[in-house]
Amino acid sequence: MFRLKSNSLCSRSLGKRGLADLSAAALQIARTKSPKKKLPKDQLDFGRTFIDHMLKINWNSTDGWQAPQIEAHGPLVLDPSAAVFHYAFECFEGLKAYRAVDGSLRLFRPDKNMARLNKSSTRIALPSFNGQELIKLIGELVKLDQDWIPEGQGYSLYLRPNMIGTEAALGVHKPSDAMLYVIASPVGPYYKTGFKAVRLEATDNVVRAWPGGVGDKKLGANYAPCIVPQAEAEKRGFQQNLWIFGPEKHITEVGTMNAFFVVKDKSTGKNELITAPLDGTILEGVTRDSILALARERLSSDEWIVSERYASILDIAEAAKEGRLVEAFGAGTAAIVSPIKYIEYHGQGIDIPLQEGKEAGKLTETILKWITDIQYGIEEHPWSVRIN
């Protein structure tokens, strides 16, 4: 349970070079005077409705982190010359708060999101922060607006921490000012009528990320360039791109998710769960890490191999022709798992098996249950962090 020790600005500790560390004890709360009307559960649209309040923390290179503020959700006031507008000094995270079956409020592995946000921010010359302190502050925001979290499995509060460079000056250099803020949106099940397997277009004429780049960071600059290729794929009847890289035609990611394939191994006859390795080009997904950990713990080693290795689109096409392709799915915070039923590469189709009468493979369904049981407290697990 998170409890604030003090609202005093003096409670902040000093970090490197005498700069103030981020401190939940310094939190100041200004409640909104105009609470918003909540939408019925069946009208929630992902990322379109926002709770009453937001968390905002300013930073500057002279003093460090300022006192955190929870205030009414509303517009930010930034100078037109702010660094975020000109040089893409922006990174973000995505995680969810859940109302568990016992009524408690939970976060799912928030420490992983804090570590990744710090990794992203420092890569683009923005400040780092104490992740545990930000988790406490997010907990206070969630508790304040907990009535916005709809009841029922599949419903949650999507949390979006952002860090931006706010220095009001042109010139490509490390920003002297930054802002870390958190907004939140109540969301329902990603698939409102149940699983819907997706069709993907394997894309190798455009590159999402490359070795030595920043494909493993959650930067806004990684996402905007993918919209045009995605729109072009949608015109041809596909929901997402499956990004292919290099002369080996390696599969990297699917849209905004990590990609997983289950292929029967030729030599052993075992099912192999395959996902691309973390070599700097692949986003270090929290759901990806959770799937790998649970699979290694819960799948029998006599029947399964769990691999972090590259597979080429040609390998997958060959496995499909030979009847060794078992299933495939994408993984991410929004949908947890998104089953894949078809991939097209240079006009050639790859059909991916689904369970008869269903829109997902057996392992895909199993993984969804494993993770949601933890998120909603059906299974007590260290990954489910109580915040009240």
Automatic annotation (TrEMBL):
- State a single Gene Ontology molecular function: L-leucine-2-oxoglutarate transaminase activity
Which InterPro entries does the UniProt entry name for this protein? Aminotrans_IV (IPR001544), Aminotrans_IV_CS (IPR018300), Aminotransferase-like (IPR036038), B_amino_transII (IPR005786), BCAT-like_C (IPR043132), BCAT-like_N (IPR043131), BCAT_family (IPR033939)
Which reaction(s) does its UniProt entry say it catalyses? L-leucine + 2-oxoglutarate = 4-methyl-2-oxopentanoate + L-glutamate; L-isoleucine + 2-oxoglutarate = (S)-3-methyl-2-oxopentanoate + L-glutamate; L-valine + 2-oxoglutarate = 3-methyl-2-oxobutanoate + L-glutamate; a 2-oxocarboxylate + L-methionine = 4-methylsulfanyl-2-oxobutanoate + an L-alpha-amino acid
Q: Which EC number(s) are documented for this chain?
A: 2.6.1.42
* Entry GO terms, CC: mitochondrion
Q: In which pathway does it act?
A: Amino-acid biosynthesis; L-leucine biosynthesis; L-leucine from 3-methyl-2-oxobutanoate: step 4/4; Amino-acid biosynthesis; L-isoleucine biosynthesis; L-isoleucine from 2-oxobutanoate: step 4/4; Amino-acid biosynthesis; L-methionine biosynthesis via salvage pathway; L-methionine from S-methyl-5-thio-alpha-D-ribose 1-phosphate: step 6/6; Amino-acid biosynthesis; L-valine biosynthesis; L-valine from pyruvate: step 4/4
Q: Does the keyword Transferase apply?
A: yes
Q: Name one Pfam family in it.
A: Aminotran_4
Per the UniProt entry, what is one GO biological process? L-valine biosynthetic process
What UniProt keywords are attached to this protein's entry? Amino-acid biosynthesis, Aminotransferase, Branched-chain amino acid biosynthesis, Pyridoxal phosphate, Transferase
- Database matches in SUPFAM superfamilies: D-aminoacid aminotransferase-like PLP-dependent enzymes
Report the cofactors. Answer: pyridoxal 5'-phosphate
Enzyme class label? transferase
Q: Indicate where the modification N6-(pyridoxal phosphate)lysine is found in the sequence.
A: 218
For this protein, the record's PANTHER family field holds: BRANCHED-CHAIN-AMINO-ACID AMINOTRANSFERASE, SUBGROUP IIII AMINOTRANSFERASE
Q: Which family is annotated?
A: Belongs to the class-IV pyridoxal-phosphate-dependent aminotransferase family.
Record-given protein name: Branched-chain-amino-acid aminotransferase
Naturally occurring in which organism (per UniProt): Tortispora caseinolytica NRRL Y-17796
